[in-house]
Amino acid sequence: MRWAAPPSKNVSHDVWHPVFDVDQQGRPVMRYIDQFVQPKDFEEGVWLSELSDALETSQNILSVPVPVGQIPVD
Predict the structure, then answer these.
(1) What is the chain's alpha carbon radius of gyration, rounded to the nearest angstrom?
(2) Distance in angstroms (rounded) separating the CA atoms of residues 33 and 7
(3) Which residues pair with 37 in a beta bridge?
(4) Under DSSP, is residue 62 helix (H, G, I), strand (E, B) or coil?
(5) Residue 74 has pLDDT above 80, yes or no
(6) Which positions, given as ranges, span the membrane (predicted)?
(7) From the centroid of its chain, how far is CA 37?
(8) What gap in Å lies between CA 46 and CA 26, rounded to an integer?
(9) Which of 24, 29, 70, 30 is nearest to 51 (CA)?
(10) DSSP of 23-53, one letter per residue?
(11) How far is CA 21 from the centre of its chain?
């Protein structure tokens, strides 16, 4: 997938990576944010919209408190 920030963000390059992948230990990971994703066609846009809706309405949400000034990194 392609992620591209709008001109107001002053980012000069796009980022390409799959939504679903595996990490260095072979564990499945999901890397997705619905902002700035650029679907290649209508079907991919529908898939992304349905993915966003499913994530937003899921009952299986894990909430992790993050202290101010910190960022979760795995």
Answers:
(1) 15
(2) 18
(3) 3
(4) coil
(5) no
(6) none
(7) 8
(8) 29
(9) 30
(10) -TTS-EEE---SSSEE-SSHHHHHHHHHHHH
(11) 12
